[in-house]
From TrEMBL:
Gene3D superfamilies: NADH Oxidase. This is Nitroreductase family protein. It comes from Oceanobacillus longus. InterPro entries: NAD(P)H_nitroreductase, Nitroreductase, Nitroreductase-like. It comes from the Bacteria. Residues 8-170 form the Nitroreductase domain. The lineage of its organism: Bacteria, Bacillati, Bacillota, Bacilli, Bacillales. Transmembrane segments: none annotated.
Length: 192
């Protein structure tokens, strides 16, 4: 295991094989995630892992949210129904959906600390996953800001923040490396 190599070679996964990832491996992946730095050791990350038949209600809640937001029409026009079916098929082709959330702190500094730490948790998990040949896609989508969506999956939007939904499974194809901007272009060294 070479962490530097993995950091460079990990890619976001956009298409997944049907095969599920063994739950022990998923537990390992998130355990590595949890070694992320966490101020006051709050370990704020929480996970709802949707897989197998557990995906149906989650995906239905996403579609209802898209209809409320106006991204999908609410009518029963054949075109709308086709769009819903293809969205369901697309989401059902992803073996695991891990919704990552945390309890909001009213103090804005604490809130930022929690959010930052949860992001570190996610990246740690993505890197660990890559070591197990498991791919992830880190997603942030509009339904995460829909209070009714949160309610429909048993979360209270007043007290809970969804940080991301991770799409997880074995990659069908590894995405190309888009490269990165040389860090010198992002860095200013102040000596005096
Ligand atoms: C906070 C965050 C949200 C992201 N949301 C999405 C998303 O909704 N859809 C998507 O296709 N990729 C999403 N990505 C993945 C980025 O597009 C991806 O990391 C970037 O294109 C670089 O590709 P790589 O991860 O393969 O190096 C997200 C990444 C981050 C960090």
């Amino acid at each position: 295991m070479d962490i530097l190599k993995t950091m460079k070679e990990r890619r976001s996964t956009h298409t997944f094989k049907k095969e599920e990832v063994n739950s022990e491996i998923l537990k390992q992946i998130f355990t590595y995630g949890s070694y992320a730095p966490t101020h006051y050791m709050t370990e704020a990350w929480k996970i709802k892992l949707y897989q197998s038949k557990g995906r149906h209600a989650f995906i239905d809640a996403i579609i209802k949210s898209y209809q409320r937001i106006g991204m999908i029409k609410g009518d029963d026009d054949p075109k709308t129904l086709r769009m819903i079916d293809s969205m369901k098929d697309f989401l059902m082709a992803i073996p695991h959906h891990a919704l990552i959330y945390f309890e909001k702190d009213n103090d804005p500094i604490r809130y930022e600390e929690e959010y930052a730490s949860v992001a570190a948790f996610i990246q740690n998990a993505q890197l660990a996953a890559w070591e197990y040949d498991v791919g992830m896609l880190w997603t942030i989508t509009p339904y995460m800001h829909d209070p009714q969506f949160l309610a429909s999956i048993g979360l209270n939007s007043d007290t809970t923040k969804i940080a991301a939904v991770l799409q997880i499974g074995y990659p069908k194809k590894v995405s190309r490396d888009k490269g990165r901007t040389p860090i010198e272009q992002k860095m200013e060294i102040i000596k005096e």
